[in-house]
Structures are given as structure tokens and as C-alpha cells.
Amino acid sequence: MFRTLTAFIISYILALPAVAFDVTDMSDKERAIFRDEIRSYLMENPKVIMEAVAVLEQRQGQEQMQADIVLVTNNAEQIFNDGYSFVGGNPEGDITLVEFVDYRCGYCKKAHGEVTKLLKTDGNIRIILKEFPILGEQSLLASRFAIATKQISGAQAYKGIADALMTFEGEINMRNLRRLASTFGLDADGIEAQMDSPEVMQEIAQTRTLAQQLQISGTPTFIMQDELLRGYLPYDQMKELIDAKRG
After folding, report:
1. Residue 105: Cβ within 10 Å count
2. Edge-first strand listing for the sheet containing 95-101
3. Beta-ladder partners of 221
4. What domains lie within the chain, and their CATH numbers?
5. pTM, rounded to two decimals
6. In which element (H, E) is residue 127 found?
7. Which of 167, 159, 152 is CA-nearest to residue 129?
């Protein structure tokens, strides 16, 4: 990072209108003198470093955003129409929000309340949930249980279980999961039997493959229309982004 920043600062200074020569034409002695002058200038004008950092971060952010748009475009069918992920909110909404979740992720739990508030205050959002268990065996067990619930009992039952798992603070084991199923009046035996099915494991594997293709390594990760949003976002920021998407 330091070398990148140093090179960028030099190019930043050389880009100023007052400079009109080619460093590559310098002799070794002239280049050494030039570097000493650059150092002296930066020591006397440290704010230039901060200005260069700001420009560098802006450029890197723009480059990442453009790269993410390409990733989303190339994987749009699997992201938005995979045929198995839960679709809620307003299925005909003008904004689609996709979330990759792990039930053991603290920031996913924090984001859950923000997303719930967003869906309540804005009735024109389509939400898609992607099961992405990456935080150990309990995460995987919870996802297998949630997906099996969806496959056995349908989308509405899945949403209730998913919400409950996201707010659950205890140890995730089969005893607690069976108790949770009974609380919702679901077939605990049928769900447990389904958890080891190829259909459940295939859904998890396909979502993991998609995450790799999108270069997603953490949760929560959101996709809003064509934009990848990596990490937790508070309600106000999500609302601002949605308003911007709508123009």
C-alpha cells in the first residue's frame, strides 16, 4: 500500500500543470535529487498526501464499482432468478435487494432489523435471501434446517424460521431446531430427514459457487439492482441508495 501510495503521489504531483518534463529522461543523479525534492516538498506540505490519498481511494472505489457491475451483470440470472432462493417483500417491486446471510453472523443479525424496517416502510421492494453459511458447523446446520423447512413446508414457513434463526442467541443444535419447528407447528421429523437430502446440499453448493463468482467472502453482502454492497448497512444508508436508484 505504501509503495502504491508513493507512486501515486509522485504521479499526482507530476500531473500538476507546472510540471512539464519526463522523469525517465533523468540521469541517476538527477533522479536522486528529484526524489529528495519530492520528499522535502511533502514534508513541507503534508496536506498533499491526504489529497492524494483521497483521490486514490476515489479512483479505487470507482474501479471496484465498475468491476462489481460487470460481475452482477454476468451472473444476473443466478442472482435474481435461481428458482430456489426465498423471494419476499413485494415480488413486483421496482427495487430488488438480494442478501447473502449467515445466521451466526453478528452483523447479519444487526442488518436484519434494518432490512425489516426497510420492507415495512417501503412497499415496493423485492427481497431475495441467499443462504451462505460460512461461520462453522452451527451456521451450516442452521442453513440446512432453514432450506429443508422451505422445501418441506413452503416459503411462508421458511420466512418465519429464517427470522427466528436470525434473532436466536443460543447454541444451534438439533434439539433447539426441533423445538423451534414445534413452536411454528411444523413437521420436525420431516424437516430433519430433509436436511441431509441432495436438494438441500445442492442449494448451498450453488450459492457458494455464486458467491465465489461474485468475489463475496463475508456476510452480510447485499446486491441492490446492479450494485454490490459488501458489509452491514444501516437503514438510512440503504434508503438513500434506493432513492438514488429510483432517481
Report:
1. 22
2. 86-89, 125-131, 95-101, 221-224, 227-230
3. 100, 230
4. 2-74 (no CATH), 77-246 (3.40.30.10)
5. 0.76
6. strand 125-131
7. 159
State which H helix or E strand residue 189 sits in.
helix 188-194
pLDDT in tens, 47-62: 767 776 766 666 655 6
Report how far residue 234's alpha carbon sits from residue 20's, in angstroms, rounded to the nearest whole number.
Answer: 47
Residue 208, CB-side half-sphere exposure with 13 Å CA sphere: 11
| Residue 177: C-alpha distances to residues 67, 119, 158 (Å) | 40, 27, 13
- Residue 174, all three cell numbers: 438439533
- Contacts of the segment 200-208: beta carbons below 8 A, 24+ positions apart: 200/144, 200/147, 200/148, 200/151, 201/144, 203/84, 203/131, 203/147, 204/131, 204/133, 204/140, 204/143, 204/144, 204/147, 206/78, 206/82, 206/84, 207/85, 207/100, 207/130, 207/131, 207/132, 208/132
Sign of CA dihedral 198, 102, 121, 224: negative
If one counts every other C-beta atom within 10 angstroms of the C-beta of residue 125, the result is 20
**Average pLDDT, stretch 145-168?**
97
Cβ pair 114, 233 in contact under 8 A: yes
